Amino acid sequence: MIRDGKVETIYVLSDGEPTLGRYVAPEVIRRELQRLNVYSHVTIHTFALGRSSEFLEKLAAENNGEYRRVDVPAVTAAVPGAPAHRNDPRRGHFETTFEERSPLSVIKQQVSRDRYNGKHHKPDDYDVTKQGWRVFVPEYYDAQEEYGLLVWIDPSEQGRIPYPEALTDRKLIGISPNGAGNTQSMWVRAGLALDAAHNMSKRFMIDSKRIYVAGFSGGGRMSSRLGVMYADVFSGAFAIDGTDWWEDIPADESPGKFFAGRYQKPKGAILKKARRVNRYLLMTGENDANRPGTKAAYRHGFKKAGFKHVKYVEVRGKGHEWPSQAGFLAGLRFLDKG
């Protein structure tokens, strides 16, 4: 379209987070557009919906266009028949805030669950009213039918919703906190994930048996922890390219070395539910640097500890990167009991 000379101007309306198509990495998209547009000189104007986007701003600047942020007001119409406290009318992608913390996200409660890190890492607190979350609600979500919830922890500082089409297929609402990246305190990352589960269950018709926590890289490590320590909140965890365990485990590919334990082993009913009921999908890639640790956590951690529903998936040829949409969807199916 750009190279045929028939187009003079393109208008892009987006949230600034590519998820589908041949190219999804922002820097690759920019590079390819510059290559295609070198002789055509097509003007590209961009509009960021609901949030600022450095990617869209650069895209416009590099193609003689203008960049604008557009804040879309929330729809206020309620859905007839749904409980008033679980009747949020919004659909699609949007940003939200919360006024209330989960009782479990309060620092004192977090430390009581994770005494190991309470001794080794200073607990950092936060103001929930100053935080933001990115949300995706499938278009055909019906407030009279319960949906599942996927809480995604991203390694970057921006919340991200992975593969909305896969979430729609599994009737899952997605939510991802901003400011919960790898550079953030573990207490804040855990708290924001717990706050998401707590508040979304008040705004939408959420099936409490289908609340999952997931993430990639450092977010995968956090999801593997939370899925075990908070097995009473999350019914499953999908850890991609990063998995932690509660005690030191042998590094099979490096004899004499170990992967360090990272959190407090739960007790009582929480541990029982984690072992017998919850489901855990540990995904890595053949060429991922975190593969040995993930495999060790599966073999010497989950399996040795008697976890009934845990699956290890090693994707051939995959490095430290997101899985394909098909692979992600397969993981969601496993969480939904196959």
List keywords for this structure.
single chain; 338 residues; alpha/beta; three-stranded parallel sheet
Question: What is the fold's blueprint, element by element?
Answer:
Blueprint (H helix, E strand, L loop, with lengths): L8 E6 L11 H11 L6 E7 L4 H9 L4 E4 L21 E5 L10 H7 L1 H6 L12 E5 L9 E7 L10 H6 L2 E6 L8 H18 L2 E11 L1 H12 L6 E5 L8 E2 L7 E2 L8 H9 L2 E7 L5 H13 L6 E6 L9 H11 L3
Helix pairs in contact: 1-2
In short:
With 338 residues, this protein is an alpha/beta fold. It is built from ten helices and 13 strands.
The biggest beta sheet reads: 8 strands, mixed
How far the N terminus sits from the C terminus, by CA atoms, comes to 42 Å
Rg on CA atoms, Å:
21 Å
Give the strand content: 15-25%
- Give the tally of β-strands: 13
The residue fraction in helices comes out at 25-40%
Question: Main sheet: which strands, in order across?
Answer: 4-5-7-6-8-9-12-13
Structural class: alpha/beta
Order of helices and strands: EHEHEEHHEEHEHEHEEEHEHEH
On the 0-100 scale, what is the average pLDDT?
91
Q: Specify the overall morphology.
A: globular
Sequence stretches where pLDDT stays below 50 over 5 or more residues: none
Q: Treating each run of at least 4 consecutive H or I residues as one helix, how many helices? A: 10
Structural overview:
With 338 residues, this protein is an alpha/beta fold. 30% of the residues lie in helices and 22% in strands. The strands form three sheets. An eight-stranded mixed β-sheet has the order 4-5-7-6-8-9-12-13, sandwiched between helices. Strands 1-2-3 form a three-stranded parallel β-sheet. It is globular, with a radius of gyration of 21 Å. The two termini are 42 Å apart.
